[in-house]
Specification:
single chain; about 250 residues; alpha/beta; seven-stranded mixed beta sheet; 8 helices; globular; binds uridine-5'-diphosphate-glucuronic acid; binds manganese (II) ion
Length: about 250
């Protein structure tokens, strides 16, 4: 199958570093199609150029988060859901541009996580909806489904953070076969739901707990980490900008 990885992304000082890291991981993956969705009113030159020179097969779209749902500068990030508009735009693109003749698996690949190349071998095995462990999330070293090694059946989850979620796993911890996305043609993410429930929102529309396929060696291997890049301290740059002497005039960083 082709792996369609959907990545929401937005302008910030670390954006090019994040996308560079991701693109170079993805180059190691056979049959890969990157769907990059900018949270912006226009496609930016930075992302346009990065994709054009990436060597990857890709689709570049933009879908701005409505201002009302956008996080304020000093808001804690759990206050509003992130990536909703962008992932929905990508799902619409998929439904408009792919059909039953395509063999694919959909994966939501946020731009700040860390992906092992071995993850994609697991994603490629997803028949309907597959799940696997995610490192460094939910206050744990690893948040994971509990699976039967022989059958891959999921018997429970180890989540401690909001364990009452219908599917207590992170966005990076599941893949959905294209045929399921096409069958359940109205399944989308939503704004007006409890914080931390985006994963459950999409999953409950496309599957049931007892249908999940536990992958990554019976959910015993960690191939993706919920890393988060610390925003760099740019106080000196702020001073230079005031003097009209920013360090990156004419230089894309
Ligand atoms: C957790 C999950 O890992 C996310 O997949 C989920 O969307 C989020 O919670 C949520 O509940 O909304 P977290 O690390 O807190 O993730 O989220 P971010 O990494 O900050 O954002 C997820 C994606 O949305 C990233 O690819 C990011 O670039 C993008 N994003 C974030 C935007 O496109 N616009 C924004 O204003 C902020
Ligand atoms: Mn993140």
């Amino acid at each position: 199958p082709t792996i369609y990885a959907i990545t929401p992304t937005f302008t910030r000082p670390v954006q090019k570093a994040e996308l560079t890291r991701l693109s170079q991981t993805f180059l190691l993956v056979p049959n890969f199609h990157w769907i990059v969705v900018e949270d912006s009113i226009k496609k930016t030159p930075l992302v346009t150029n990065l994709l054009a020179s990436s060597g990857l097969t890709y689709t570049h779209i933009n879908a701005p988060t409505p201002p009302h749902y956008k996080l304020g500068k000093n808001d804690p990030n759990w206050k509003k859901p992130r990536g909703v508009e962008q992932r929905n735009a990508a799902l619409r693109w998929i439904r408009n541009n792919l059909n039953e003749s395509h063999n694919g698996v959909i994966y939501f690949a946020d731009d700040d996580n860390t992906y092992s190349r071995f993850l994609f071998k697991e994603i490629a095995k997803v028949k309907r909806v597959g799940v696997w462990p995610v490192g460094l999330v939910g206050g744990l070293m690893v948040e994971r489904p509990i699976c039967d090694k022989a059958t891959g059946k999921v018997t429970g989850f180890n989540a401690v953070w909001k364990p009452d979620r219908p599917f207590p796993i992170d966005m990076a911890g599941f893949g959905i076969n294209l045929k399921v996305i096409l069958e359940k043609k109205d399944a989308l993410f939503a704004y007006e739901i409890q914080s931390g429930f985006q994963e459950s929102e999409i999953l409950k529309q496309v599957t049931h707990r007892d249908e999940l396929e536990g992958l990554a060696d019976g959910c015993s291997k960690v191939y993706v980490w919920h890393t988060r890049t610390q925003p760099p301290v740019l106080n000196t740059e702020t001073l230079l900008i005031k003097k009209g002497k920013s360090s990156n005039q004419g230089i894309e960083v």
